[in-house]
Design goal:
Helix content of chain A: under 10%
Radius of gyration of chain B: 13 Å
Shape of chain B: globular
Order of helices and strands of chain A: EEEEEEEEEEE
Structural class of chain B: mainly beta
Number of helices of chain B: 0
Largest interface: A-B, 21 and 22 residues
Oligomer: heterodimer
Largest sheet of chain A: 6 strands, mixed
Number of helices of chain A: 0
Number of strands of chain A: 11
Strand content of chain B: over 45%
Distance between the termini of chain A: 41 Å
Chain lengths: 112, 114
């Protein structure tokens, strides 16, 4: 079945360092979404990417969608302790807009 | 105003009991979902309703039964609870109609079966 692989599973960084998480899908996606879940909290929608090669920025966060619409990345510049949490990617299959396929998430720890 | 609200927030119950979790959204979304998140954080879709019609019904024990009285509500009833049902259950909603597919999640119900 369709899978979305996400790496790394865990990462700890020193505050101020950069961080990147990657998602790879086994099939072409119509769009990809990114969510952040703080410890003890619920997933919060960050952004949706739709176009091939799309790049979007939210302050220190940069999101990319690959040219083949099978991979995506989230890059955080100069991490802060408020960035701590688990980041999930989730993709919609090009043929089925009803079911998101979720990555397993990347848990980010930031040492002050 | 809470966009997606689910109750209760915590639920501790004994094996074999029956329990319900309720969810309501005031966003005008046409689709609602139930997810289970286990201790390893994996988000597993259980059910989805679009305008009260069941559109996703994953491989879930039939002890779990969703009910959507209208498109703003999606409840989850669980019969004969088992230890393995302990998890956090999230309700979510989205709008398939507008093409803006981002999900809004409720704050979760932490279910502990003892």
């Amino acid at each position: 079945g369709q899978q979305v692989m996400q790496i790394p599973q865990y990462q700890h960084v020193q505050e101020g360092e950069d961080f990147t998480t990657y998602c790879n899908s086994s099939t072409t996606l119509s769009n990809i979404q990114w969510y952040k879940q703080r410890p003890g909290g619920h997933p919060v929608f960050l952004i949706q990417l739709v176009k091939s090669g799309e790049v979007k920025k939210q302050k220190r966060l940069t999101f990319q969608f690959g040219e083949a619409k099978k991979n995506s990345s989230l890059h955080i510049t100069a991490t802060q302790t408020t960035d701590v949490g688990t980041y999930f990617c989730a993709g919609l299959n090009a043929g089925n807009n009803r079911k998101l396929i979720w990555g397993l998430g990347t848990s980010l720890g930031v040492n002050p | 105003d809470t966009a997606v609200s689910q109750t209760p927030k915590y639920l501790v119950t004994q094996m074999g009991n029956d329990k319900s979790i309720k969810c309501e959204q005031n966003l005008g979304h046409d689709t609602m979902y139930w997810y289970k998140q286990d201790s390893k954080k994996f988000l597993k879709i259980m059910f989805s309703y679009n305008n009260k019609e069941l559109i996703i019904n994953e491989t879930v024990p039939n002890r779990f039964s969703p009910k959507s009285p209208d498109k703003a509500h999606l409840n989850l009833h669980i019969n004969s609870l088992e230890l393995g049902d302990s998890a956090v259950y999230f309700c979510a909603s989205s709008s398939l109609l507008t093409g803006d597919y981002g999900y809004t999640f409720g704050s979760g119900t932490r279910l502990t079966v003892v």
